[in-house]
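Practice set, problem 2.
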Amino acid sequence: MIENYKKYAFIMPFVGLFVSLLLFVYFFGIAGPGEPIWAAALYCALPFLVNTICFLPVCIYFKVSKKSEKHT
């Protein structure tokens, strides 16, 4: 069970990057960003940022738990 969670946690930033790229293509290539370009860019980058921010604590937890297993 924990191995599946590790795989899911490792894939999260890549899924966020893929979704962000799709949003960039849609907003800047197809629909046009409109007036506040920075807001559209931030909205497009949001999936990658959120998934990466959620990934970092999980990654740190697994590294710390792996080190504690070696010491016991």
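Problem 2, part (b): a different protein.
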Amino acid sequence: MNHFVEDELKLNIQKKLKSTFKKTIDNPVIKAQLTWDILSDQLQAILGPEVHNQWFKNITPVVLKNNILLLQTETQFASRWINTHYQQLVDALITIQDRKYTCFFIAPKKRKNS
């Protein structure tokens, strides 16, 4: 990625974050959703719509608390794949947001058969 694109992404992220967090939002679920919306937009811009739709489109933000962002994937496989192949990119994008968050992709809980 060239420096111009990186600078544009960083500027775009910072503008969105400032407008989002100007409002004093105390709800950790809303914070998670807003943070994920920004992160998801950036992932789509970098990876393209095909990859984004395959791996990130159906992620559900769970909570953002104590600087930990929990994101739920649809399957255990998706959680493992994203953590293995995209975690460094996600961490870099969070760093660009000037946030000291840690992001975890988790799988849904397994349901017990009734």
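Answer key, part (b): The chain has five helices and three strands. The first strand starts at residue 60 and ends at 65.
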